[in-house]
Design goal:
Length: 212
């Protein structure tokens, strides 16, 4: 998709996620997500760290995190997770049009972050988000590229042909692994769920990768 379409899509998906989050019970907000150590609340809080943050705030978190971007990110999400539930929902909705991107990255980053973290929320809750799957084509383009490391995945993703026939998408070289777009995304981001949906001669290598 082009840049204009991308930002329109991101805004629509943020709004849809806000609508979904608004229906959750307190118990669901406290459910462990697919992100180790984070609840659904932490994931929702993380999604707006960039759009609601500031450079001084990030620098302070970086100092607290002893120079680690990952630790700083966790600290910022932990801080925002203390906010009222309605504030977390409202931030997603009112800042849906934010065009914040991490340094050195374009719209692919917030789109991918949003789609992956939506699964971190909906999969453990057993919910169907009901959203279009086509945006995954652009997210998977990023996740299977060198640009994905280290922000989204560690180095060493298997050199395979990755394919999601349901969205007419494929990338890479080598033996083929295919499955639903979301199952491919979960595996390449090392979330070892829905692995049974992966097929093809490259599926064993990807399943091993996903399990770490």
């Amino acid at each position: 998709m082009d840049e204009t379409t991308a930002w329109t899509t991101i805004a629509a998906e943020r709004t849809a996620l806000a609508d979904l989050l608004e229906t959750l019970t307190p118990e669901q907000w406290a459910t462990p997500s697919l992100c180790e150590g984070w609840t659904v609340r932490h994931v929702a809080a993380h999604l707006m760290v960039g759009p609601t943050g500031s450079t001084p705030g990030f620098i302070r978190a970086l100092v607290r995190g002893r120079g680690s971007f990952a630790r700083a990110n966790t600290l910022l999400a932990d801080d925002r997770a203390q906010l009222p539930t309605q504030t977390l929902v409202d931030d997603l909705r009112t800042r849906a049009g934010s065009r914040f991107t991490p340094p050195g990255m374009d719209w692919h980053a917030p789109l991918t972050d949003l789609l992956v973290h939506r699964l971190d929320i909906t999969v453990p809750l057993g919910l169907d988000h009901g959203r279009p799957l086509q945006p995954w084509a652009d997210a998977l383009d990023l996740l299977t590229s060198k640009r994905a490391s280290p922000a989204f995945i560690p180095k060493g993703l298997p050199h395979l042909t990755y394919a999601a026939p349901e969205i007419d998408w494929s990338r890479g070289s080598g033996v083929r692994v295919e499955g639903p777009a979301e199952a491919i995304a979960l595996a390449v981001t090392r979330r070892p769920v829905r692995l049974e949906q992966l097929t093809g001669p490259g599926s064993a290598a990807l399943k091993t990768w996903a399990r770490g």
